Amino acid sequence: MFHSVPHLQEELTESLLPQRRFPSTRKIATRRSFNTLDTWHDEFLNQAGPSDPQRFPFILVGNKIDLDDGSKRMVPEKKARKWCASKGDIPYFETSAKEDHNVDTAFLCIARLALEHEHDQDIYFKTVVEQVSDTEQTSGCAC
């Protein structure tokens, strides 16, 4: 999901990481998105640097389950659940925003996990320091 929408990565990182929770969504009709989960999961933990990566709260959301009544499904639910089990029993939800199926439940899980882990881990981001010039502006607009 992140790699296809770069501005979403920045927005989600800024809004969700400080609350110590993070959803991962994948489209059940594409095997490619599922196959990148290991890389994405490891990269996320590497970048976030939580003090206890094994306890960092994730959830996995398989979205768009309404497409073609599941006939184009490339990733079986059993395979997704097996991946979640291999990562410490990450909660897994299959959702459809179109049919309003399991969306609220997934978000409630995110909120519950965030509250449960609120004080568990500190996450420090690498910051970029802006260079400020000491030269005085001599003319023109102050903007």
From TrEMBL:
Pfam families: Ras. It is found in: Endomembrane system. GO terms for biological process: protein transport. One of its GO terms (cellular component) is endomembrane system. It is a lipid-anchor. InterPro entries: P-loop_NTPase (IPR027417), Small_GTPase (IPR001806). The keyword Protein transport applies. Gene3D superfamilies: P-loop containing nucleotide triphosphate hydrolases. The keyword DNA repair does not apply. PROSITE patterns: RAB. Keywords: GTP-binding, Lipoprotein, Nucleotide-binding, Prenylation, Protein transport, Transport. GO terms for molecular function: GTP binding; GTPase activity. Its main location: membrane. PANTHER family: OS05G0536900 PROTEIN, RAB FAMILY. Belongs to the small GTPase superfamily. Rab family. This is Ras-related protein RABG3a. It comes from Zea mays (Maize).
